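User: What would this chain look like folded?
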Amino acid sequence: MDIVKKLEEMKKRVNPEIDKYFERVIKETEKVDKNITEAVKYVRRIVMSGGKRARAIFMYYGYLAAGGREFEKIIKTSASIELIHAFLLIHDDIIDQDAKRHGVTTIHEHYKAIGSKFLKNKDPKHFGNSMAIIIGDMVGALGNQIIFESKFKPKRVIQALHRLQGIVSFTVVGQTEDIYIENKGKATEKEIMKMYENKTAKYTIEGPLHLGAILAGADEKFLKALSEYSIPVGIAFQIQDDILGVFGDEKKLGKSVGSDIRQGKQTILVAKAFEKADSEQRKILSGALGKKDLTMKDLENFRKVIINTGSLDYAKKLSAKMVEKGKSALANHNPGVKIKKEA
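Assistant: Here's the prediction, encoded as structure tokens.
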């Protein structure tokens, strides 16, 4: 199977469902308040401008793996996790002070600009953040609504919604750990790996797989098998994301390369580099982390330290190790359900 091709095919199936749902919400809000309508339109613009739809795809395959066969129904319902993702990213962009998302101005920056130009507001930044928080909350509610309105058995819908709240709660735990670690200015590899598990693995892979499997009627034993696969693979996903945040292509990422460095993010790359760095290399790392006006030269010097300390190589090997751990766990557990041919 060509994985990249398959992901693109799935994205083409999921995107129209997300877009149709936005269209419906826009029509509904037009009867209520024009400001909310404009907010939904702007969220739609950001969501439809990029994103791999990985969570929707994992939800779909979790459903298939557990024996689900109502293909179109699960595709439609998988839009839910993408709206939950959008809700969390809107809030995350405020926390990280990011200006771009998928190449589009972030919600809080968009409304900050509106506050500066069109409103008699002495604090446009506060206005922008306030609007982004409430818009994010609304998008989260819409994500829940999609599952609630799905045509799956009521018991499974309730179980899926219950699981979804757990996904969001663990993401908040991981985000809290991330913020504390960032503000402490240092972290151990153990602390970072725990944060990766809560913030990324449970939210990006385990949670969506569980949602799909639950809607197909999976039992706890089956969900456990999925967890043993998804947690290490989710950690690998985050490690790769950290690597891209330092070494990636800005056009492909849709956000500024080096933004993690500007924010002082503590990652596996950073932790291992500090562990192996000499005094000069430590100065470069410390000088770059948290520097808001990070220059291209600063970024290049930072990259050199990450490479020369062996941190980049270590992170790549750790990521590969986590993937193999996940695959081995799934093979050993053998849930006993094979994915049949899709519709």
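The two ends are 16 Å apart (CA to CA). If you want, I can go into more detail on any region.
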